[in-house]
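The records we work with from here on pair a chain with its fold. These numbers are not coordinates but entries in a learned vocabulary of local backbone shapes. To see the layout at work, look at the sequence and tokens printed below:
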Amino acid sequence: MTTMILLQLTSNHPDPVVPDREWRRAMRGQQICAECKSIDRRRYPQPWNVVLAEHPGHLITGSVSEGGGVIFHVRFIEMNRHELAGYVFGTCEEAGAGRIDEYVTCYHKDIIVPRGNEKSEYDICGTCGNIHFHWWRSERTQYVLRCYLSDAAVYQDANGTLYLREDLAMGLDLSEWPDAGWRPIEVRDTPLDGRRLPIDPPDAPW
């Protein structure tokens, strides 16, 4: 079988995007799961609209610190709009300054889970069901299982990070964003961690 990879969209910007404190407090237990602090996908298809403490600058993507998910530059989203069926889009605002037109949020009701080796640990949220992979405890081994994939070209994990099929990603011009990058993620048939996660098929042979 031909080796397949996904490409994870990354940013080399060192700092997370800072949300407005009052917005974050108000959304806890609403748009944001009170337990795992990620987008509560049980509320799909309600949009995740975020209020930031300050303008994030010119980034392709940025993780919102304890705010639930990730923001994306609107032009990157428009490049891939035809592959984002099922994704819900939300707005970004700067507290006290109004809407930030350059950025949007997006999330899907379904997630994929990056996996690791036998040292890996996962947080399985008992409230919303999100599954988070602790990459720093697994020597950075990451892959996804083929059984998580469909015929889609774009996938998302519980943190909001996007993963694109290789042929789609390689056709995109990201030169507008100096922070942008891709990280290859292998697609495997069986896990290396010896774990069975709630997302796995009930008849999985591991």
